[in-house]
Amino acid sequence: MARSTDWGVCFYTLSMRIGVRGSRVWQSVGVLPKRLMLVSVMLLLVGTSCRAQTTNPRLLFALPFHAGALSIPQGSFKVTGMAAKSDGDLFGIYAGDHGILFSGSLFVWPQHSYLTAPACRDAVLRSEGQRSLDAAMNRIELQSVTGADVALVLMIPKDSSSSAVRAFVASGNLCADLTFSSPHPISAGLIPLQRIKDILTNLNFDATAAPTFRGAFTYATVEFRNREYDGAAAAYEAALKLVGGSSDPRTLRRVTTDQLSMALGLAGHFNQSKAVNEAAIAIDPTYPLYYYNLACANAEQGDAAGARTHLEQAFQRRANTLPGETLPDPATDPSIVKLQSNAPFWAFVQTLEGAKAP
Fold first, then answer.
1. Position 304 confidence tier, pLDDT thresholds 50, 70, 90
2. In angstroms, rounded to a whole number, what is the distance separating the alpha carbons of residues 178 and 47?
3. What are the DSSP calls for 294-350, one per residue?
4. Cα separation of the two ends of the chain
5. What is the pLDDT of residue 353?
6. pLDDT category, 51, cuts 50, 70, 90?
């Protein structure tokens, strides 16, 4: 089925909160309308720890389908972005602090089944070509306080004044690449080598850690932000299976189901989106957004009768939204507007406009 790109408020692009030091930084994606999400929920779901949660925040790297997790102290680094591959095999975080840039990724490397930290380092450098090999200086190893082997290399490109310290950890086919870089030469003394060593010494790497709800949801949300809706749907589905182990299963099940439904809708999988909401209603029939999402799918498929029924059911339950959340206005929703030419249906929709508050 062709992808729908204007599911509007029904299948809106989530405003992704990247939590840094407890601040409220919202990144909307594209031009799709936004719907308010619970700040308290997003505090739980963001991939980086916030100072509001702990006085010792850590950057967390995890994958939705593959065992393994890595975390490092965040310190004063401010997160500037995240990345995720649609196959679920790579998660990255970008950050900066007073001219020092950090980029880190945890990834699966299927063609390398027995990686060690030095082997991962050397394989990555070879894969990047001669320029990286020429820039690589002073390859050394250290061990973190948790026992993880860390392989380092100092990068000094011959044709640039920049410099970087790269660190690698690995086990099996799982590898992490952590880079601390500066636009200045190493001789300028602007790369805080002792601070980087402290971060790496306090690195925690567990190649056997099972995927978690938080890791899967964060991964999915990064894909959603990047409009990788099929990949996002797969990761949200993985998160939904893990929600029972989260801090608030009922609330987070609702949020995750809503996001999964929207990802499927934006990918054009309307029947699958409906099935997700119908399954959720069977166990949690009071949450109104399940019905609202069904109405959106109905409208996309030209089913005015179904859309009316589900809008009625949604607004009958509008008092059961999550704190800080309201039902969208169907009269301005691009999905619902597709049925505007159906006069009886549109007259009904007009009666709902402005009726969002309980």
1. very high
2. 16
3. HHHHHHHTT-HHHHHHHHHHHHHTGGGSPTT-----GGG-HHHHTTTT-HHHHHHHH
4. 37
5. 60
6. very low
Provide the residue type at 326 as one letter: T
Kindly tell me if the per-residue pLDDT of 40 is higher than 80. no
Joined tokens for residue 202:
């306090």
Secondary structure in 3-state letters for 18-74: CCCCCCCCEECCCCCCCCCCCHHHHHHHCCECCCCCCCCCEEEEECCCCCCEEEEEC
Domain 66-206: which topology?
Protein Transport Mog1p; Chain A (3.40.1000)
Residue-wise DSSP of 150-191: EEEEEE--TT-S-EEEEEEEEEBTEEEEEEEEESS-GGGT-S
Residue 202 contacts residue 216 (beta carbons within 8 Å): no
Phi-psi region of 332 (alpha: psi -120 to 50; beta: other; left: phi over 0): alpha
Q: In this structure, is the dihedral angle defined by the CA atoms of residues 298, 303, 309 and 312, taken in order, positive or negative?
A: positive
DSSP state of 92: E
Cα–Cα distance, 172 to 225 (Å, whole number): 30
Distance set, CA 324 to CA 37, 155, 208, 232 (Å): 7, 48, 38, 24
- In the block, which residue shows the tokens 């010494």? 201
Cα distance between residue 153 and residue 151, in whole Å = 7
User: Residue 318 carries which DSSP code?
Assistant: G
| Backbone φ and ψ of 252, nearest 5° | -75, -25
What are the boundaries of each domain within the chain?
Answer: 66-206
* pLDDT, position 17: 23
Q: Which amino acid, 260? A: L
